[in-house]
Amino acid sequence: MATAAALGKPERAGRKPVTSKAELSHTALVLFDRKGFDQVTVDEIAAAAGIGRRTFFRYFPSKNDLPWGDFEELLARMDGYLDSLPETVPLAGGLCSAVIEFNRLPPGEVPYHRQRMELLLGVPTLQAHSTLRYAAWRRVVARFAGKRLDLPEGSLKPQAIAWALLGLCLAAYEQWLETTDTELTGILQESLKLFPDVLDGQAGV
User: Fold this and answer.
1) pTM for this one?
2) Alpha helix locations (H) across 40-155?
3) pLDDT tens per residue, range 75-124
4) Cα separation of 38 and 59, whole Å?
5) DSSP track, 121-148
6) Which of 64, 87, 107 is the last residue of a domain?
7) Nearest to residue 50, comparing CAs of 80, 85, 13?
8) In which residue ranges does the UniProt entry place its DNA-binding region annotation (predicted)?
Protein backbone atom coordinates (compact mmCIF):
# COMPACT_ATOMS: atom_id res chain seq x y z
CA MET A 1 0.00 0.00 0.00
CA ALA A 2 1.34 3.44 -0.89
CA THR A 3 2.29 5.75 1.95
CA ALA A 4 0.73 9.14 2.54
CA ALA A 5 3.93 10.93 1.56
CA ALA A 6 4.18 8.98 -1.68
CA LEU A 7 0.67 10.06 -2.59
CA GLY A 8 1.35 13.68 -1.73
CA LYS A 9 -0.81 13.67 1.39
CA PRO A 10 0.16 15.04 4.81
CA GLU A 11 1.89 12.54 7.02
CA ARG A 12 0.33 11.64 10.34
CA ALA A 13 2.34 11.66 13.55
CA GLY A 14 3.41 8.21 14.59
CA ARG A 15 2.96 6.80 11.09
CA LYS A 16 4.24 3.24 10.96
CA PRO A 17 7.37 2.92 8.80
CA VAL A 18 7.66 0.20 6.18
CA THR A 19 8.94 -3.10 7.50
CA SER A 20 9.66 -5.22 4.42
CA LYS A 21 11.32 -5.14 1.02
CA ALA A 22 7.93 -5.47 -0.63
CA GLU A 23 6.49 -2.43 1.18
CA LEU A 24 9.53 -0.30 0.40
CA SER A 25 9.42 -1.37 -3.24
CA HIS A 26 5.72 -0.47 -3.46
CA THR A 27 6.37 2.95 -1.96
CA ALA A 28 9.13 3.59 -4.49
CA LEU A 29 6.99 2.43 -7.41
CA VAL A 30 4.33 5.00 -6.54
CA LEU A 31 6.97 7.74 -6.55
CA PHE A 32 8.49 6.51 -9.81
CA ASP A 33 5.05 6.56 -11.40
CA ARG A 34 4.45 10.15 -10.28
CA LYS A 35 7.82 11.69 -11.03
CA GLY A 36 9.78 9.32 -13.24
CA PHE A 37 12.50 6.93 -12.15
CA ASP A 38 15.48 9.21 -12.75
CA GLN A 39 13.88 12.13 -10.91
CA VAL A 40 13.30 10.30 -7.61
CA THR A 41 16.11 10.19 -5.04
CA VAL A 42 16.88 7.65 -2.36
CA ASP A 43 16.24 10.31 0.28
CA GLU A 44 12.74 10.93 -1.10
CA ILE A 45 11.95 7.22 -1.06
CA ALA A 46 13.24 6.81 2.49
CA ALA A 47 11.21 9.80 3.69
CA ALA A 48 8.05 8.52 2.01
CA ALA A 49 8.60 5.13 3.61
CA GLY A 50 9.17 6.61 7.07
CA ILE A 51 12.70 5.26 7.41
CA GLY A 52 16.20 6.72 7.42
CA ARG A 53 18.68 6.61 4.56
CA ARG A 54 20.82 4.08 6.40
CA THR A 55 17.82 1.80 6.92
CA PHE A 56 16.98 2.06 3.23
CA PHE A 57 20.34 0.53 2.33
CA ARG A 58 19.69 -2.38 4.67
CA TYR A 59 16.82 -3.32 2.37
CA PHE A 60 18.32 -2.50 -1.06
CA PRO A 61 21.90 -1.86 -2.22
CA SER A 62 20.76 0.90 -4.58
CA LYS A 63 17.75 2.65 -6.10
CA ASN A 64 18.22 0.48 -9.20
CA ASP A 65 17.40 -2.62 -7.15
CA LEU A 66 14.00 -1.33 -5.96
CA PRO A 67 11.94 -2.31 -9.02
CA TRP A 68 13.09 -5.90 -8.55
CA GLY A 69 11.45 -6.17 -5.13
CA ASP A 70 12.37 -9.37 -3.28
CA PHE A 71 13.88 -10.96 -6.37
CA GLU A 72 16.48 -13.01 -4.49
CA GLU A 73 13.85 -14.78 -2.41
CA LEU A 74 11.70 -15.53 -5.45
CA LEU A 75 14.71 -16.85 -7.33
CA ALA A 76 15.63 -19.08 -4.39
CA ARG A 77 12.10 -20.47 -4.46
CA MET A 78 12.37 -21.16 -8.18
CA ASP A 79 15.68 -22.94 -7.62
CA GLY A 80 14.12 -25.02 -4.84
CA TYR A 81 11.10 -25.81 -7.00
CA LEU A 82 13.31 -27.11 -9.80
CA ASP A 83 15.37 -29.19 -7.36
CA SER A 84 12.18 -30.77 -6.01
CA LEU A 85 10.96 -32.00 -9.40
CA PRO A 86 11.17 -35.77 -9.90
CA GLU A 87 13.36 -37.12 -12.67
CA THR A 88 10.25 -38.25 -14.54
CA VAL A 89 9.35 -34.60 -15.28
CA PRO A 90 10.86 -33.66 -18.68
CA LEU A 91 13.42 -30.88 -18.85
CA ALA A 92 11.23 -28.55 -20.92
CA GLY A 93 8.11 -29.24 -18.86
CA GLY A 94 9.93 -28.67 -15.59
CA LEU A 95 11.40 -25.35 -16.67
CA CYS A 96 8.12 -24.11 -18.11
CA SER A 97 6.20 -24.98 -14.95
CA ALA A 98 8.86 -23.23 -12.85
CA VAL A 99 8.52 -20.07 -14.94
CA ILE A 100 4.74 -20.07 -14.47
CA GLU A 101 5.09 -20.54 -10.71
CA PHE A 102 7.77 -17.81 -10.55
CA ASN A 103 5.33 -15.40 -12.20
CA ARG A 104 2.16 -16.38 -10.35
CA LEU A 105 1.13 -13.25 -8.44
CA PRO A 106 -1.55 -12.35 -5.89
CA PRO A 107 -4.15 -10.05 -7.52
CA GLY A 108 -3.06 -7.07 -5.42
CA GLU A 109 0.52 -7.41 -6.62
CA VAL A 110 -0.28 -7.37 -10.35
CA PRO A 111 -0.43 -3.54 -10.78
CA TYR A 112 2.91 -3.17 -9.00
CA HIS A 113 4.43 -5.92 -11.13
CA ARG A 114 3.24 -4.19 -14.29
CA GLN A 115 4.94 -1.00 -13.09
CA ARG A 116 8.11 -2.95 -12.35
CA MET A 117 8.30 -4.46 -15.80
CA GLU A 118 7.53 -1.16 -17.52
CA LEU A 119 10.49 0.32 -15.67
CA LEU A 120 12.84 -2.62 -16.23
CA LEU A 121 12.10 -2.88 -19.93
CA GLY A 122 11.72 0.82 -20.66
CA VAL A 123 14.14 2.86 -18.54
CA PRO A 124 17.67 2.99 -20.00
CA THR A 125 19.17 3.55 -16.54
CA LEU A 126 17.81 0.19 -15.42
CA GLN A 127 18.46 -1.89 -18.49
CA ALA A 128 22.20 -2.24 -17.89
CA HIS A 129 21.63 -3.04 -14.21
CA SER A 130 19.02 -5.65 -15.18
CA THR A 131 21.64 -7.75 -16.94
CA LEU A 132 22.97 -8.78 -13.52
CA ARG A 133 19.55 -10.02 -12.42
CA TYR A 134 18.91 -11.79 -15.71
CA ALA A 135 22.28 -13.52 -15.32
CA ALA A 136 21.29 -14.78 -11.87
CA TRP A 137 17.99 -16.05 -13.29
CA ARG A 138 19.78 -17.81 -16.15
CA ARG A 139 22.18 -19.49 -13.73
CA VAL A 140 19.25 -21.17 -11.99
CA VAL A 141 17.92 -22.40 -15.34
CA ALA A 142 21.34 -23.52 -16.60
CA ARG A 143 22.07 -25.37 -13.36
CA PHE A 144 18.87 -27.40 -13.71
CA ALA A 145 19.43 -28.00 -17.44
CA GLY A 146 23.03 -29.05 -16.87
CA LYS A 147 21.99 -31.49 -14.18
CA ARG A 148 19.36 -33.06 -16.44
CA LEU A 149 21.70 -33.23 -19.45
CA ASP A 150 24.68 -34.36 -17.37
CA LEU A 151 26.67 -31.37 -18.56
CA PRO A 152 28.48 -28.53 -16.77
CA GLU A 153 26.06 -25.63 -16.29
CA GLY A 154 28.50 -23.31 -18.05
CA SER A 155 28.64 -25.41 -21.21
CA LEU A 156 26.87 -24.52 -24.45
CA LYS A 157 23.61 -26.46 -24.20
CA PRO A 158 22.59 -25.39 -20.66
CA GLN A 159 23.54 -21.80 -21.42
CA ALA A 160 21.66 -21.80 -24.73
CA ILE A 161 18.59 -23.22 -22.99
CA ALA A 162 18.77 -20.51 -20.32
CA TRP A 163 19.10 -17.73 -22.89
CA ALA A 164 16.27 -19.13 -25.01
CA LEU A 165 13.94 -19.41 -22.04
CA LEU A 166 14.72 -15.87 -20.92
CA GLY A 167 13.97 -14.59 -24.43
CA LEU A 168 10.58 -16.28 -24.49
CA CYS A 169 9.75 -14.81 -21.07
CA LEU A 170 10.76 -11.28 -22.07
CA ALA A 171 8.76 -11.53 -25.29
CA ALA A 172 5.71 -12.51 -23.21
CA TYR A 173 6.28 -9.61 -20.81
CA GLU A 174 6.43 -7.12 -23.66
CA GLN A 175 3.13 -8.42 -25.02
CA TRP A 176 1.58 -8.30 -21.56
CA LEU A 177 2.55 -4.66 -21.10
CA GLU A 178 0.77 -3.76 -24.33
CA THR A 179 -2.54 -5.10 -23.00
CA THR A 180 -4.69 -4.26 -19.99
CA ASP A 181 -7.04 -7.23 -19.79
CA THR A 182 -4.75 -10.25 -20.21
CA GLU A 183 -3.26 -12.37 -17.44
CA LEU A 184 0.50 -12.62 -17.39
CA THR A 185 0.52 -16.38 -16.87
CA GLY A 186 -1.73 -16.84 -19.91
CA ILE A 187 0.65 -14.95 -22.20
CA LEU A 188 3.61 -16.78 -20.71
CA GLN A 189 1.98 -20.12 -21.39
CA GLU A 190 1.44 -19.15 -25.02
CA SER A 191 5.06 -18.08 -25.40
CA LEU A 192 6.39 -21.17 -23.63
CA LYS A 193 4.62 -23.45 -26.10
CA LEU A 194 7.59 -22.64 -28.36
CA PHE A 195 10.10 -23.92 -25.83
CA PRO A 196 9.94 -27.65 -26.69
CA ASP A 197 10.65 -26.70 -30.33
CA VAL A 198 13.74 -24.80 -29.20
CA LEU A 199 14.96 -27.93 -27.41
CA ASP A 200 13.96 -30.34 -30.18
CA GLY A 201 16.48 -33.10 -30.65
CA GLN A 202 18.29 -32.72 -27.32
CA ALA A 203 18.62 -35.74 -25.10
CA GLY A 204 16.64 -35.72 -21.89
CA VAL A 205 13.99 -33.26 -23.06
Assistant:
1) 0.83
2) 42-49, 53-59, 71-84, 91-102, 110-122, 124-149
3) 999 999 999 999 999 999 999 999 999 998 888 999 999 999 999 999 99
4) 20
5) HH-HHHHHHHHHHHHHHHHHHHHHHHHH
6) 64
7) 13
8) 41-60
